[in-house]
Amino acid sequence: MNGVILAAEGGVAADFSAEPVLASVVKAVLIVVFLLTSVLFAIWFERKVVAKMQLRPGPNWHGPKGLLQSLADAMKLLLKEDVNVTRADRVVYLLAPMLSVSASLLVFAVIPFGPTVTIPFTDFSTPAQLTDFPVAVLYILAAASVGVYGIVLGGWSSGSTYPLLGAVRSTAQVISYELAMGLSLVSVFIMAGSMSTSQIVNSQTQIWWFIPLAPAFVVYIISMVGETNRLPFDLPEAEGELVSGYMTEYSSMKFAWFFLAEYINMLNVSAVAVTLFLGGWRAPVPDGFLGDALNTGWLPIVWFLVKVWAVMFFFVWVRGTLLRLRYDQFMIFGWKVLIPVALGWVVVLGGVQWALTVAALPRSTFLYVAAGVVVLVLLPMLFWPEKRRRPEPAEPETIDAFAGGYPVPPLPGQKLPASERFGKEVAGNDR
């Protein structure tokens, strides 16, 4: 076997120190090709699934079942006239979309597609992962944070008002929901005892973390939709603006770069959800079922891809089901609900882990203490004073609009008399 490559088994992370440079280059190229082809498929997949939900055919002309429609869209953007804004900062204007795409391509470098695999017709074995290190998940969060610069620079460099407003909205949205996402991932670090992606996958041999860490998983799922600017959180463009947010002044391939980054980020957050909460590349059956055949060789890569596209289906399902929120509702939900819930869950989980490991508290005693804490939390709710209801508004005063010789519109708290034509009163706010 060429090189000393250790399998990521038994809680030991894969060793990439002896990985040949050529193998790393080939895997990097394969990851880029995988992401680009997945984006083309994701566009077709989203349009087709939403079409099924809305009882319409969707793309069905180019290629079998419309599979070549995404390729036609890409060629249209490639051949479209490239318009540059006169007032734009030319260097930053061109750099912003490239920065967004470059940051989105970095995440899959530490995502494990599977265990160690052997290349057919050779004796060369290598982990189905580009690289890994002890703080791999922090690297993922850092790469996602760098992508924010592409958004804010794209809106600022355009030299126009609406792109700048869209960039500010989108940047605030991404940063806010990254906080909740990061807090939800802390729960996995506590349970797995590592921030290495391969070790986190190995820690889920008995149970996938989405079951014991259900609150953190729910927070992550909501946060990933908000961070990727997807419905019902697609708020870079406001309801009163017939523009496309920070991408308004971009056209042709520069617009395609932003579009590509959005779909790659969807794949990124889906892969992170699979790796940290859904068992990674492990088969969706109990460990040891049918021996180790389901979790060895090339088959785990299939399990990983199936899980990723299941999460991608959730993205599309949400888009075809929910309505867009108002921006203030969205930000209030992130700062006053998701972040406190995620932070509270981390505190509770940390206390539980300390009680069971450091303090060596028996499980029976721990359950009694937990039940007492729950009672102390719920008891005040039973005796909480009822909120006083607001007094009912007084009956509006009926006025004569023509008393002064000319019509006067009603003021707040006033109403017009009954209409002789329709026989009903006319409220003040209806005029």
TrEMBL record:
Query: Which residues are in coiled coils?
Result: none
Major subcellular site: membrane
Please write the reaction equations for the catalytic activity of this protein. a quinone + NADH + 5 H(+)(in) = a quinol + NAD(+) + 4 H(+)(out)
| Bias (Basic and acidic residues) ranges | 421-431
Which residue ranges does UniProt annotate as crossing the membrane?
25-45, 91-113, 133-153, 174-195, 207-226, 255-278, 298-318, 330-354, 366-384
GO biological process terms, alphabetically, are:
aerobic respiration
Describe its membrane topology: Multi-pass membrane protein
Q: Which InterPro entries match?
A: NADH_UbQ_OxRdtase_su1/FPO, NADH_UbQ_OxRdtase_su1_CS
The signal sequence is: none
Subcellular localization(s) per the UniProt record: Cell membrane; Membrane
Q: Which UniProt keywords apply?
A: Cell membrane, Membrane, NAD, Quinone, Translocase, Transmembrane, Transmembrane helix, Ubiquinone
**A single Gene Ontology CC term:** plasma membrane
Please report a single Pfam family linked to this protein.
Answer: NADHdh
Q: Name one GO molecular function term.
A: NADH dehydrogenase activity
Which family is annotated? Belongs to the complex I subunit 1 family.
Q: What role does this protein play?
A: NDH-1 shuttles electrons from NADH, via FMN and iron-sulfur (Fe-S) centers, to quinones in the respiratory chain. The immediate electron acceptor for the enzyme in this species is believed to be ubiquinone. Couples the redox reaction to proton translocation (for every two electrons transferred, four hydrogen ions are translocated across the cytoplasmic membrane), and thus conserves the redox energy in a proton gradient. This subunit may bind ubiquinone.
Which NCBIfam families does UniProt cross-reference here?
Answer: PRK06076.1-2, PRK06076.1-4
What does the subunit comment say? NDH-1 is composed of 14 different subunits. Subunits NuoA, H, J, K, L, M, N constitute the membrane sector of the complex.
The identity of this protein, by name, is: NADH-quinone oxidoreductase subunit H
User: Which gene does this sequence derive from?
Assistant: nuoH
